[in-house]
Amino acid sequence: MKNWFVIIIASFGIVSCSTSKHATATGKTTTGNNSSSPEFINSISVVPGSNTKTGSVKADNSAKYSTDGLALSNLGSVNIEKVDQVLFKYAIMLDIPVEYIGNQAKMFDFIEDWYGTPYKYGGNDRKGIDCSGFSSTLMSNVFAITVPRTSRDQYQNCQKVSKSELKEGDLVFFNIRGRGVSHVGVYLTNNKFVHASVNAGVVISDLGEGYYSTKFMGGGRPKK
What we know:
single chain, alpha+beta, 6 helices, 10 strands, globular, hydrolase, protease, signal, thiol protease
């Protein structure tokens, strides 16, 4: 592989839209011994000028993932050396075949543009955005689907789906405050979802984390 990038694995905190826990940047972490505290997943950045082995990315394992009608078989053999840095990064971050990422370039280019955008209640731009603002912006720009502005209205205006039925582009809802829907994200694949959290801003989290698994309320498929 051309000597133009290296994978640097760092961790950064993921917290919900409704929690004020401080997000650290040191490895997989929990707060104290509370099993309900949010954990952290690895983030990967790619730096030009270094070398990494091609074995770091799954070249083909599509049978493990739901393709949701995506024509992965039409991609043929992927030349890993020519894979865009952004797609390469997210293939590793989500632990999925690079073919899948390549077939969803628009989605992950959008996420890359917004990644790390700070949280701002009522915000709707890169200076600051809240969870429902981010989900509605993503749905509009990537899928050309208009959804309501608030998380509760988004929940009310979608087809409910179970966790096992989730597909890329579905919305995932959480009951953070114990009073119904108060947080929303957009499902990606392999149990991962992207959302705007209070302390970390726009990040990718895992539904299997102790915190989010206990707060998960259900999935929703936006009506086209």
